[in-house]
Amino acid sequence: MGIFRKKTPAPQLSREDALNCIPVKSEAIQASHTPEGMVRLHYPLVLKPWIAELAQRFSGAPYRPPSRQLELDELGSLTWNLINGKQTVKDIVRQFSRQTQVHPKEAEAAVTRFLRELGRRGIVGMTPGKQTMGDGNA
Amino acid sequence: MPESDPTMPHSVRDAKPFAWAGLALSIPKEWETSQLDHGYALLEYQYRPVLELKTATIRGRFAFQRHLKQLARPNHKRPAPLLELTAWPPAWPVFPATAEVQTFSWQGAHIGGQGLLVYCHHCHRATLIQFFEHGDGGRDVIPRVLASFKDHDIQPAPTLAVYDIQATLPERFTLARFQFDAGCFEVVFGHSRETVTLWRWSPADVILERCAKKLTRVVQNNSLLPSAVLVEDGRPRDRGMEWQWQPMDYRSRLRHFLSKHTHPGHALRIWHRPDTNRILAVRAEGIETFQAFDRICASYGNL
Asked: What is the pLDDT of residues B185-207, one digit of tens each?
């Protein structure tokens, strides 16, 4: 009975390992710039596979996910431009902190929250970087 | 050797103050505030914890073992590490006779620690100070940090020095509440009917751009002033503005009517620090004198 089988919890990353991950932009994203110089993202809405399947069956045509638009503010645009598929989250935090003169701890909170939100929308993914020993916490 | 190795003994030049919950220390510049709570602080270096402080005022008799057990209890649900009481390390500074101290150490799977529990008979405060060890040294800095430890009579050093802000408040003020969000810090101190609130916003250029480069808009957007006061333009101060007003509510008027004391005043000052890209603000309510407010504003700045 697969339904009632207890799910194995996903291994939890330590804070240090999470900061060593490399954010990668999704290939399905189209980025443009607003007249004010901010970044505007067009991204396909991520649906659960069964919803997509259902939508395809009812419409009869090949399913095309609806697209959404997201306009980033100054700080979001800056962070977006720092994502290049090579820099780790830690590197991005450092650069963000240096460029905006915010405290490193604030930069970490702001950048990680932003990346988490983009990840939730399927705009960025994470590839594991260098792993460390230990959990980094007491 | 790394350029700024925190394991090396630090001089006054490469140290910075840390003050929270009535405790004050001088720490290496590279150490950063990681977590704060009432009576709690965790400092880190390169995303790893280096120093933890827990403090509480003891009411009644102080029992060393009992309070050590209580304070050593971790905040999260993991089991507490087994503490081993140790002899006083010879390099560590001697504490005054009014303090009762005991050192300890513990070892986990990837991390260890050593520290001490201090109970001050003068201020009746018990403080647990523990330094984390990640197997890469770092013990040399401990004596210097411990030598700077204070749990009372902190002034003239800052009474608040966390993240990138510092301020000196009269010792009668105690921490009431705080919120450290990315971009906006708010720390509230209180004493009797006096309240002092400190704010810090960053990055200032982005915030001012959104507020048409006007500090009044920052005040308005964050509801720092009663609307009846905000209609009047603030007095220009050095790179900022200031408002002073009297309480309008009937309780304050009645208190003033019945009392012979001078009317306590309210004041707000907000200013821009372009050098650090910060906006700072102080609001005092029910403050006895505006000189005291001036002194707090003068002491408030960036680390």
From this structure: 999 999 988 999 999 999 999 99
- Taking the C-alpha atoms of residue A43 and residue B184, their distance in angstroms, rounded to an integer, is 30
Domain B15-147 has CATH 3.60.20.10: no
Q: Where are the domains of chain B?
A: 15-147, 165-302
Low-confidence ranges of chain A (pLDDT < 50): 134-138
Pairwise pLDDT comparison (B41 vs B8), residue with the higher score: B41
Cα gap B131→B142, rounded to integer Å: 8
CB of B34 less than 8 A from some CB of A: yes
Domains belonging to chain A, first-starting first, are: 13-127 (3.90.930)
The nearest CA of chain B is from the CA of A89 a distance in Å of: 12
Q: Are A124 and A83 in contact (CB under 8 A)?
A: yes
Q: Which helix (H) or strand (E) holds B237?
A: strand B235-237
Q: Using CB atoms, which residue from A75, A133, A136 is nearest to B47? A: A136
Which value does ipTM take for this structure?
0.82
For the stretch B266-275, what's the b/e string if a residue is b when 16 or more beta carbons lie within 10 angstroms of its beta carbon? bbbbbbbbee
pLDDT of residue A131: 63
pLDDT at A135: 43
Task: Confirm or reject contact between B216 and chain A (CB < 8 A).
Answer: no
In this complex, do A138 and B108 lie within 8 Å of one another by their Cβ atoms?
Answer: yes
- Better-scored residue on pLDDT, A40 or B238: A40
Q: What are the chain B neighbours of A101 within 8 Å (beta carbons)?
A: 202-203, 276-277
Considering CB atoms only, which of A74, A105, A136 is closest to B206? A74
Most B CBs within 10 Å: which of A36, A72, A101, as the mutation test of the B interface? Answer: A101
**Separation between Cα atoms, residue B72 and residue B115, nearest integer Å:** 10
CB contact under 8 A, B182 and A102: yes
pLDDT of residue B5: 44
pLDDT of residue B4: 41
Whether the CB-CB separation of B294 and B277 falls below 8 Å is answered with: no
Residue of B nearest to A136 (CA): B48
Q: Which residues of A touch B277 (CB under 8 A)?
A: 100-102
Q: How many residues does chain A have?
A: 138
